[in-house]
Design a protein that fits this description.
Bound molecules: nicotinamide-adenine-dinucleotide
Number of helices: 14
Low-confidence stretches: 1-16
Helix content: 25-40%
Structural class: alpha/beta
Order of helices and strands: HHEHEHHEEHEHEEHEHHHHEHEEEEHEE
Number of strands: 15
Shape: elongated
Strand order of the largest sheet: 3-2-1-4-5-6-7-8
Length: 450
């Protein structure tokens, strides 16, 4: 444009670049923008609901027709989204869901919230991002804002997503806008949810960042713009790597304390009284969920290509990976001391979800603990009010009422759900291995702590 004569530049102004941006900005500000969310899981459904609550018309797209049907009935399958909130939005026509990507034709914005797991080789699995973007690209049109929210390695938005959208011939930053915004939801957290967790957003160009900022500001309390998609992608990986490594440190301290006969929980609690320079992290039976055990490997995979070994990540991954084994050894030793071999002993697991008060079993350390126990001949049962049944190497188990713990040779607390009656557990169980310090308030010879 700068090569045009001045008169032509001035004459071109009302029609050209800014027009697309101005039109979309106006639609966003007036809440007339038609919002799309691709992937209606733990991240996508709460986001869709927030924008519908803010007055936008929202379309959720998910390949799972069972999920889109339930959304259209106002029947939530995500713990943080009560049906009592979802249903009125659906009834008012503010939120609908479909498995059909042709809906993209009528949308102004799209947030992509599809899974980003690891392959068995610990390499990033980009297949969900690629397949959803390929579908979006079929119906992509000028004037759209596309934001990737799936956790991924730095460079994904620019190197993988942009080329698929640019095949349309449209120019990013002028004809359409592209951002990355890391998702930070913490399922089951009653204090911080989608609306009040600050939202970082970085665009491919400054115009993209500004569009992303404007968009999120309509529905979320605080938006933090950053200079690029890569910075935004790296923010998420720093946050989760920070957690993973500090949990690794807490686990290593727990292993040391165990050898030295020191109560690690008491140590951490006392250290946490320091009002500056210390933040407590806690040991446990191992990492779980699809974020903390996985995301740091997105970073180490990418940095390897840049010739840098992510040594902290590898080390913390190794220590965290030892914890299920450590818990099983605690069970075995406790049973030995009671004169019972682990082989054929009945071991009852309290809590199998990967963290307290949620129903998510993905990467749960309970599965590792149970598998190790099973392979050593233990007879397993479990209680988890959030997980009615599970499969484990050909074994199918159903959650038992908590009373079942009383007849086990040993109980192991893997996930400390708040619904458990710990008083009753301590009163009735024969032997308890507590990997979460859930029994902090109890003193008893039958309790073995991590
Ligand atoms: N759940 C969390 O606590 C959390 C927190 C922060 C970041 N994240 C990240 O957010 C992303 C989404 O995670 P999630 O927990 O919501 O996953 P999820 O599995 O709960 O939901 C993903 C949804 O995407 C759908 N989907 C898969 N492929 C699709 C496709 N090609 N087109 C349309 N829909 C498709 C699935 O059917 C599913 O409903 C991941 O990158 C994850 O790492 C998750």
């Amino acid at each position: 444009m700068s090569e045009l004569p001045l008169a032509a530049q001035t004459a071109a102004l009302p029609l050209a670049p800014q027009t697309t941006a101005a039109t979309l900005q106006e639609k966003i500000l007036q809440r007339r923008a038609r919002v799309g969310v691709v992937g209606l899981g733990y991240v996508g459904l709460p986001l869709a609901v927030e924008f519908a609550r803010a007055g936008f018309e929202v379309t959720g797209i998910d390949i799972r027709a069972d999920k889109t049907q339930r959304v259209n009935l106002g029947d939530s399958y995500v713990g943080d989204v009560p049906s009592a909130i979802l249903k009125p939005l659906v009834d008012a026509g503010k939120l609908r869901a479909t498995p059909d990507f042709s809906a993209v034709r009528d949308l102004d914005t799209i947030n992509i919230c599809v899974p980003t797991p690891l392959r068995k080789t610990k390499d990033p699995d980009m297949s969900y991002i690629v397949s959803s973007c390929q579908e979006v690209a079929k119906y992509f049109h000028a004037g759209m804002l596309v934001i990737l929210e799936s956790t991924t390695y730095p460079g994904t938005t620019d190197e993988l997503v942009l080329p698929m959208l640019a095949e349309s011939g449209l120019q990013v930053g002028r004809d359409f806008f592209l951002c990355f915004s890391p998702e930070r939801v913490d399922p089951g957290n009653p204090t911080y949810q989608t609306a009040n967790i600050p939202k970082v957003v970085g665009g491919h160009t400054p115009a993209c960042t500004e569009m992303g900022r404007l968009f999120y500001s309509q529905a979320l309390q605080r938006v933090v713009p950053v200079s690029s998609t890569r910075v935004a992608e790296m923010v998420k990986l720093l946050e989760n790597t920070y957690r993973m490594i500090n949990i690794g440190l807490a686990n290593e301290i727990a292993l040391m304390c165990d050898r030295m006969g020191i109560n690690v929980w008491e140590v951490i609690e006392a250290a946490a009284t320091k009002p500056f320079g210390f933040m407590p992290f806690y040991p446990g039976p191992g990492l779980g969920g699809h974020c903390i055990p996985i995301d740091p490997f997105y970073l180490s995979w990418k940095t390897k290509q840049a010739g840098i070994e992510a040594r902290f990540i590898e080390l913390a991954g190794y220590i965290n990976g030892q914890m299920p084994q450590f818990v099983v050894e605690k069970v075995q030793n406790a049973l030995n001391q009671a004169g019972k071999p682990l082989m054929r002993s009945r071991v009852h697991v309290m809590g199998v979800a990967y963290k307290r008060d949620i129903d998510d079993l993905r990467e749960s350390p309970a599965l590792d603990v149970m598998l190790l126990l099973k392979r050593r001949g233990a007879v397993l049962s479990y209680t988890d009010p959030f997980v009615p049944s599970l499969k484990l190497e050909g074994l199918e188990l159903n959650s038992q009422p908590q009373d079942a713990a009383a007849s086990a040779d040993c109980v192991v607390i893997v996930t400390d759900h708040s619904a458990f009656d710990y008083q009753q557990l301590v009163a009735r169980a024969i032997l308890i291995v507590d990997s979460r310090n859930a029994l902090k308030a109890f003193q008893s010879d039958k309790i073995v702590r991590l």
